[in-house]
Each structure stands twice: as structure tokens, then as C-alpha cells.
Amino acid sequence: MAEQTEKKRGGAAIYVITPFLLLLLTGGILILCYYLAPTHRLQKYLNIAFMDNLKTSAQSDGLRIIENEISTGSAPDETYSEGEIIYPTFGEQYAKLEIDSVGINVGVYYGVNPELLERGACQSTQSAIIGETPGNAVIDAHVNTFFSELADVKVGDTVKLYTNYGQFTYKVTEQIEFSKDDKRYLAVPKDAEYLTLYTCKPQVLGSADQRVGVRCEPVEKKFYSQSKEGGAE
Q1: C-alpha atoms less than 13 angstroms from C-alpha of 60 in its C-beta half-sphere
Q2: Which of 12, 35, 62, 140 has its CA 20 to 30 A from that of 80?
Q3: Which of 90, 109, 79, 91 is nearest to 169 (CA)?
Q4: Helix (H) or strand (E) segment spanning residue 106
Q5: In terms of C-beta density within 10 A (0-12 exposed, 13-18 middle, 19 or more buried), how is residue 22 classed?
Q6: Rounded to whole angstroms, how far apart are CA atoms 44 and 145?
Q7: Residue 118 φ/ψ region, left for φ over 0, alpha for ψ in the -120 to 50 degree band, beta for the rest
Q8: 116's torsion region: left (phi>0), alpha (psi -120 to 50) or beta?
Q9: Taking the domains of the chain in order of start, what are their residue ranges?
Q10: For residue 29, what is the enclosing H or E element?
Q11: Which pTM value belongs to this model?
Q12: What span, in angstroms and rounded, lies between the C-alpha atoms of 158 and 70?
């Protein structure tokens, strides 16, 4: 009888201890992965969406998404430093963004909402169209997807934007960091032209309040058509 009682006690102890052992094992694996894996790669999957009141958003219901074919090849032999801009509609992919130094290559959609952010980078409708002067074209994307390498972009790197009305080359002039309520880098300048790229600052837990990115200035414009009377200058 005593032997059976001891066996029952031993079995009960195993049932009690096993969950704790599994918990410790799981925690150890997570800690090991955290320290062995590159930090920004781990954060890429843990730090998911970001949306803030700096963006113009729309309901997904009824959203018409236009997927344009945009060439990233050589520009035509004859181009113009000033020319005609083709203005996009909300939900339209109207540009391709390339930063060869960090391997970023993504389509740019006009307007910002969750569905568009799942497809590529998005440009705020409150910002200037690519190629407008003066203006500030503001483009952002999720840190866990298309802009996961944006924090690695350095001053002096080249950024290229391709559209169906021209090709535009920029030089990174400043690395920026700001809070989600700080609009200084998103404002439209009165007498200058900028390209601003940003995303969330990676962090493992919680919602990111900080933004990181780059400020760029144009170095070359290649419009495919000259400005029409009353069109973009």
C-alpha cells in the first residue's frame, strides 16, 4: 500500500513540474534567439503595423487600387529638367522607389491606408507629388516589410524614383529621427524641394512612438514631356 501511495505522489509531482519545465525551456529558446539573431531582423517580425495622424487614410471598402506598369530602365534620349507631371488618384501605384545601397526596391502608392501599406510604400496625399517644386514628397512604409532596411541608409546614398512621367534622382543629405507627433520633417517648404522617407523605429514590444528615416534633395530630373501651358512648371 505504501509503495502504491509513493507512486501516486511521484506521478502527481511529474504533472506539476512538467509545465514549469516546458515554460523554462521555451523561455530559454526565446532568449537564445534574441541574442543570436540580428536584432533588427527579430524586430522586423515582432514590431508590426504603424499608423498615425500624420497620414491621410481611407476605408478599404470600395478602394480602387490601380497597379501601373512602371519602367525602371534607361530614360528616353530626350528628357527635360522641367516637365509635365501626371497626377495620380488615391490608391494608384504611380512610382517605383529604389535604394541600391540597402536593397530597397518597392512600388509607391498614392495615399495611405492599411491595405495599401500591405502592398508597398505609401505617399501622404498631404505632401507634394514627386517632381513638384517647391515641395516635400513624404513616403513611408512598414518597418517589418518594405522599409526594414531604411535605418541603414547613409548620408550620400542615392535614391531613385521612377514614374510614368519621368525619372528622379535624389541624394540623402540627412538621417532623421522624430516623434510621431512631430511634423517638422513632414511640412511642405515654401522655397525648397525635398524627398522624405520614414518608418517606425524598431522595437520589440509595444507601439513605436519614434520615427526614423532620411531627408533627400534632388540632384537630377528627367521629365519625359515638357510642361503644357497651365501645367506643372
Answers
A1: 7
A2: 140
A3: 79
A4: strand 104-110
A5: exposed
A6: 7
A7: alpha
A8: alpha
A9: 2-36, 49-223
A10: helix 2-36
A11: 0.72
A12: 19
- C-alpha distance from residue 140 to each of 71, 99, 155 (Å): 21, 14, 18
Contact by Cβ (8 Å): 110, 123: yes
Instruction: Please tell me the predicted confidence (pLDDT) of residue 206.
Output: 55
Q: Tell me how far apart the terminal alpha carbons of the chain are, to the nearest angstrom.
A: 98
Q: What is the pLDDT of residues 84-114, one digit of tens each?
A: 999 999 999 999 999 999 999 999 999 999 9
How far is residue 169's CA from residue 98's CA, in Å, rounded to a whole number?
Answer: 10
Q: How far is CA 118 from CA 5, 135, 147, 153, in A?
A: 60, 26, 12, 22
- Which 3 state secondary structure label does DSSP give 99? strand
As a whole number of angstroms, the distance between CA 106 and CA 95 comes to: 9
Residue 51 has pLDDT above 50, yes or no: no
Contact 119/106 with Cβ under 8 angstroms? no
| Cα 208 from Cα 202, distance rounded (Å) | 7
In whole angstroms, give the CA distance from residue 54 to residue 182: 9
Fold observed for domain 49-223: Sortase; Chain: A; (2.40.260)
Q: How does residue 188 score in pLDDT terms, banded at 50, 70 and 90?
A: confident
Distances from the Cα of 32 to the Cα of 17, 39, 50, 170, angstroms = 23, 12, 27, 41
C-alpha cell at 112: 495611405
Longest Cα pair distance anywhere in the chain, in angstroms?
104
Cell numbers of 156, please?
550620400
